[in-house]
Amino acid sequence: MDDLNAEEKQLIEWLADMDEEQALARANKMLLEDGVNPIRVLDICRAAMDIVGKRFEDGEYFLPELVLAGEMLDTIGAVAKPLIKQGDGEAAAKLGKVLIGTVHGDLHDIGKNIVTFMLDINGFEVKDIGVDVPVETFIEEINAFQPDIVGLSGFLTLAFDSMKETIAAFGEAGIRSKFKVMIGGGQIDETVRAYTGADAFGVNAVEAVSLSKSWMGVAA
Amino acid sequence: MAGAQDNGFLPLALRPEEGSAARPAFDARWQRLMDCVEGRMPDRMPVALYATFWLARYGGVSCKDLMYDYEKTKGLAERATLELDPDITSGGMVAANIYGRSLEVMDFKQLQWPGHGVGDNQPYQYLDREYMLGDEYDEFLFDPTGFYLRKYLPRIGGAFEGFAEMPCLPGMHYFRLVAGLRGFANPKVRQAFENLFKVAEEVDRMTGHNIDFSNRITALGYPRDVGGNTVSPYDFVADYFRGARGMMTDLFRKKDKLLALLDKARIFLTKLTIDNARAAGHPIVMIPIHWAPDAFMSEKQFKEFYWPTFRQMMVDMIDAGIIPMPLWEADCTKRLEIIADIPKNKAIYWFERTDLAKAHEVLGDTVCLRGNLSPSMLTTGTPDDVDAAVRHLVEKVFNKGGRLLLDAAFGLPDETPVENARAMFAAARKYAG
Question: The complex's ipTM?
């Protein structure tokens, strides 16, 4: 965004610097008192999230900043979205569709949620189908959502076999070639990738974004 | 013989009887570990057996069996110890498994376990939730016991819901105290107390089985790795009270209150840990470390929120004769220089994914290391892969003067083929005595 006024630049800075109190007050003022187009406010938030994502990639920010940034974005979004009227403009086109879920037998979701957030702020349309997802549910959701990429998450070692079964079932259902599969979670490494038949693995949310961008032909 | 007692450590209460056939082997095994702790190279590299639900695979039983059938679990843990013949075995093979009946009587809410949210052949899993709300810091800080009784226990145990209506004692005095006790006649409060006694009776039975296993395994000549466990102040608040999301946002929103609670938690966690270690008669205390990994917070956050209270807790434990054994989960490479600031030859650092060769470089003169065969290799690899991985650790750590207690990254993963477990112990003997 290159046409920002001083107030908008300040909002970006506060959001990027984790100054929640001032950022939310300013966003609320813009939306509720100044009548700023809500789409523009959300675009400003997205610009701030780009900075947050960059600082995460650079090793300056870690999970706590991503979680707080996500909560600030949700809070502003909850105020802004009901104010959007027809003609306010369109959201930016998405880079691609990612379906993500934690494989069956595993109830962990912290890592999956962070990956979902990072993909979302990096321009992907993400559908998160939750934890302990049975193989059949993955296939139903994939058929309905038609993703470009499927992300399988798992924290426990039992997830190795669940991932392998899930990916094998994609093959049996004849849909394996329609999307890329990436896996991630506490114990995932190249050994597990090879074992499960996934296309790639990532050790953190930045790698999930880089992989997704490279598969969609976007510069990472 | 020389050992823990000579170095100010808590004495090991449980040993085979003097003159018994098992005593020399037991003493040699324990000495091997204590040599590693106290900065001497042992006569050979000790190897540890630690497992939880792997025993289900090993014994051809379900995870539910391990949690509910006390005798079966003790039998399998004993059989695995005798077959794999480690230097150090683990009471946790029984103690961490046999909670089923106690959890059921308590209607425990923080875990899903076989028959209660997960299948009979799945391990239990912790539910990350907000068990203390963000606006309850002051209440917990002011009166931890009152908070436990009226807020925490009712949230984590269905059997304890009635405690939510229990009278608040501080402030009661004279006739007001007498009159205030009427609140204990409340049928819900009374029921909660009756439930508490039922839970306590089951936990007492369970503990009896843990003690029985310790006695049996000791009589066979195998020392246990720890007498108990504890948590760091940060993990205590993050995992069991605020939940991941609450804790991470509290770093920004409630910094001062969080720091105050971490310091208060340090004091009562340290006291509890020392009391428990003395009662257990074992100097080593395991401390699973959840929120310290490189990816979870910045160095600045680690130095501000995690390390100061945890370091102080470990130093106080050491002063009380305890050997802290933190299990640094995930990759903690960036923390190595910081966590090296601990009294020399008084602790065991167990690493899950941190490269042990790197850990040896930084910490080799300070602590005994434990770990860390990869879970993916152990579960999906072959016995030859396991052999090569053990050899790698022997060459890169033990043979370079590293005082290493060989183990898997977090004990044997549940899915480890039995032949891979056998290969781990055989390779330890083959390459390091």
Answer: 0.91
